[in-house]
């Protein structure tokens, strides 16, 4: 069965199931239910958010050592406040500006069908290697893969940089492997991120030594 032919009358859960089946991803029924519930909660609001972390990597076919155990979603600060209002009955805390270690963001948490949902607004990463301001709108949202209507995932170029800066080779190496299968698709956004964050050639060279990406310096 081809998904595009029959998707119209299906609910979010069924659409997500067909997406996973067609791409031969490992099924995770509990997580799929939680994501479908999230879509149904947020889609009517028309607010922009992207699923990231292990959920986003799983949905893009990146090899993971374990199944996702929670859900991370990212938005601009103003959008995060609107999302909080939609999810308020599920909240386990109130949004607060959090600066922990290398991260800064408007952070809040929710219980979604047995999964912890972390909402991250206005995300920034600050390390000795580089500073990274995450621009969900418009930069990442424009390049994001639509999994099903109402669910987009963080582009792999972002996930590569984020995991490289936080020192997670178990993540950035398989992401690099996936990006190297089609550099023409993934590298333009990576170069936009580099330009918009003002990283020097020296910073880029230090990053590229950690994981080889085809086309980085072409």
Automatic annotation (TrEMBL):
Stored SUPFAM superfamilies: Nucleotidyltransferase (SSF81301)
UniProt cross-references to Gene3D superfamilies, sorted A to Z: 3.30.460.40
Top-level taxon: Bacteria
Full protein name: Nucleotidyltransferase family protein
């Amino acid at each position: 069965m081809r998904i595009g032919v029959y998707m119209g009358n299906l609910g979010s859960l069924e659409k997500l199931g067909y997406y996973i089946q067609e791409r031969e991803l490992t099924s995770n029924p509990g997580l799929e239910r939680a994501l479908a519930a999230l879509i149904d909660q947020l889609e009517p609001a028309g607010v922009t958010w992207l699923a990231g972390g292990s959920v986003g990597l799983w949905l893009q076919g990146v090899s993971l050592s374990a199944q996702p155990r929670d859900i991370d979603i990212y938005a601009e600060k103003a959008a995060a406040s609107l999302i909080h209002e939609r999810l308020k009955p599920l909240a386990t805390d109130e949004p607060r500006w959090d600066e922990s270690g290398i991260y800064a963001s408007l952070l809040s948490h929710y219980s979604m069908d047995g999964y912890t949902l972390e909402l991250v607004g206005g995300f920034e990463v600050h390390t000795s290697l580089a500073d990274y301001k995450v621009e969900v709108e418009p930069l990442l949202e424009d390049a994001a893969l639509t999994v099903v209507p109402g669910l987009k995932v963080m582009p792999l170029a972002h996930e590569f940089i984020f995991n490289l800066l936080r020192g997670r080779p178990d993540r950035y190496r398989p992401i690099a492997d996936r990006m190297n299968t089609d550099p023409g698709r993934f590298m333009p956004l990576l170069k936009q991120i580099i330009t918009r964050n003002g990283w020097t050639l020296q910073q880029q060279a230090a990053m590229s030594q950690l994981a080889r990406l085809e086309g980085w310096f072409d």
